[in-house]
Fold each of these.
Amino acid sequence: MSEKKRLGFWEIWNMSFGFLGIQFGFALQLGNTSRIFETLGAEVDKLAIYTIAAPATGLLVQPIIGYLSDRTWHPKLGRRRPYFLIGALLATLSLFVLPNSPSLYIAIGMLWVMDTAFNVSMEPFRAFVGDKLPGDQRTAGYAMQSFFIGIGAVVASALPYVMTNWFNVSNVAEPGVVPDSVKWSFYLGALAFILAVGWTVISSREYPPDNMEEFKKMRKETSGVWYAVADIFKGLAHMPRTMVELAVVQFFSWFALFAMWIYTTPTVARNVFHATDAGTKEFQDGGDWVGLSFSVYNGVAALVAFALPVLAKWTNRKTTHLICLVLGGIGLIAVHYTTDRYMLWVAMIGVGFAWASILAMPYAILVGSLPEKRLGYYVGVFNFFIVIPQLVAAGILGFILQNWFSSDPAYALLIGGASFFVAALLCLVITDRDRPSKQISL
């Protein structure tokens, strides 16, 4: 690979700007999917199963798109940008369609399409930093992505509340119809998605392969989805020990996050706004307030991200992660018990600490344990341990609530808080080292 030139601030800004749009879409999905499904008649104990699209598509799509984009070259769009653009077009369409779904099952189908589109755009953005930036600028590149993740999540999560309270857009509708406040939030999210990703596509360039003939030969010899899938699963048997230890911590961390994303809206609607009927104004107000609450934890995470390196220097990385996960567990349990809307924001401060650390510390620990030549490969495999716990949560949380807790969604948050505590405890067994560790077979 020829030497990469250093990029200026605005060039790094431009190449990362698309993440603002992607996070708009994700934040709207996380904050409003349960609300839309309940409006269309979903039972609360089946919400986890209905929203299984997000983790399932991440498991299937991200490794395959990453593999294919490594082997793509378009004379005008380059390697990663074709996938940015394809994903953005599909996401924009689905963001318009989902809140207008005429039935629950069409909405579920559109969620699959939408989440697939998000993953098609998002995965190549992670590789884009490595493609474009020299080693001493990659931290700045990922930090810029994190900045746009935080900003996009804060604004998008607050949109339904803003539409209702600042622009007098109706927050109620006929039974089985999603309110205009949510619809217009999704429309704005669709516009933000295509414009932000489009700006990165037109304002950035990519390095071509050094040897095009050799690149074409490699692509021909290693092409095919089945080859990619086989290669990904092959690496699972040879993971470094630190990666295995982190995988268990990730399992309980993301199990807790999935419980929060799916069950906070029905919990807040019932416990704070005293509404169980998704067709009432009180229920929709609860959904708006959850959006604001999610803005709080994302805003806290954006600020805490700057403090994590300092805390890690005072202690160490795994202790920093342990502390943040404990605060997240306290926050989720507080949501279970609170009946005051403003206390929800206090609870979300703890969640913000956990979220900031989950986005940073596992990767900081992981990368130091990986052989450099296999870094990208194993980081891709590591995505499995984000997806699998969400699939497990989707499969069992509804059953647990229905059979043990009278379908009360608040208990999902209690379970999530306990899961954060287990993850924190497991941090104690992590081997944090900055050289390749012994491999173990599963």
Amino acid sequence: HLAHAPFRAVELRSWIVRATNTGISAVLDPRGRIVAQLGLFEEGSLVVDVRGAGRPPPYARFGDGPVLGTLGALLGLALAASRRSASAG
């Protein structure tokens, strides 16, 4: 799971704090860099200054809605165009 955390941090432009019982605990910055970590089965604590992420990127705010809306509009236009050409011929 830690291998995927840098991608999520960059995608959301957010800090990631990953705490585990037996795995690798880590703190990642918004650029996906590991700022601090504890190794496998290592006990301890991490102290890191984590700042707010700010405004989330568009996909985090709107999700798949704009993409699905665009695809629906294109499908509607394609159907309308095919009906027009079928009725003209």
Amino acid sequence: MATTPILGITEIAVGIVDQYLLINQAFEEIEASTNTAYLANLTSGNVTLTAADMADGVLFRLSGHTVARDLTLPALARLFALHNNGTGTVSVIVGATSLDILAGETGFYHTDGTTDGLISVSSGGGGGGAAAVSIISPDTATTHTTTVADNGGLLIFNSASDCVLTVPQTSTEALDAGFHVLALNQGGGTLSLALEGSDVVDEVKLWADASQAVTVLKEVAGSPNTWRLMGNAWQPGAVEDDALTAPPTTPAVGAVYIPLATATGTWATHEGDFAVHLGSDVYDFISPSTGQTVYEKTSALWIGHNGSAWVSV
């Protein structure tokens, strides 16, 4: 007997007896395919699902793996959900298309029945015109230069060292206006932004702590490009000292100071700003917000900015 092309449900032929039996069976198979879960055990290695496997449920739970695995799917038209219940990343593969789903993530995917037809409808695994998650592995890479393929994606830095995200000018990489990428530093180092040539960042200085995700958005096309940072409202809650006019001799990386007038050396002209130590004699400077309050550790006092100066609270 003929079957449907996706779920393999037996079709009713002319003259068949007891048609209600086939109809009831079809109802049960449709109900199962839209409500039940399929368990794919990746403990021993990569897994390839068949068309029959894909028809068995709407949610596919991936479990048992502690390292990266591959899940290969057939070229079948299907909308489904994946949940990575293991501790390693899973690469979801259809033909030459591969999308990553991180440990603990759940997302919706669609295969359109073509050889390489796989997209992510929603998840951290890319899709819908967005790039897949790209993980910058520990100790192997502390820098990344964005490309067209990163558009809409997530870059995760895992290095304990300081990391640098570079956005190139139009002359070196054709990144159109609206290009955006989310960068997350999970390794403990400082994540900073580097601009090529005469590119500029509009409005916001970048200094992100290790737990903050920063969206880098290309605002204006052309060369030089103008970039904007979104979700980068990092402000310190405490400072080491607000009574120094020059950088200390051996500050810790990440330590924050408020230079006192008249500041000298690297701090010159930055009186009243937050001076964030990035290593060696390099500082990033962030202007305080009016009404902002921080704890000054040396004097054990709270101080607040009144719009023109810092005063005791």
Amino acid sequence: MSVDCSVDEKFLSIFVKDTGKGIPVKVLDKVFDRFSDVDKHLSGGNEGLGLGLSIARSYARMMGGDVEAHSVEGRGSVFTVMIPIQPPRDVRKKT
């Protein structure tokens, strides 16, 4: 797994990449559903409640951003968290 980030004029983007099994296209959107059983489908067990990505996406969207997932079976996945940024404010008082 690796984590990287980039900043442009509008967003801080955080990329979480893995080289695991990947997620089949037919269930990729389901990873954002609350209590999704995608992990069970992929791993054969239940490793969590299925809330992490739905909570992350909800918070990102509340701030005007988003979370996206891209995956290729057999090659891994990339999750991108995009958070809007604002330019620094000039905190000096103008006289």
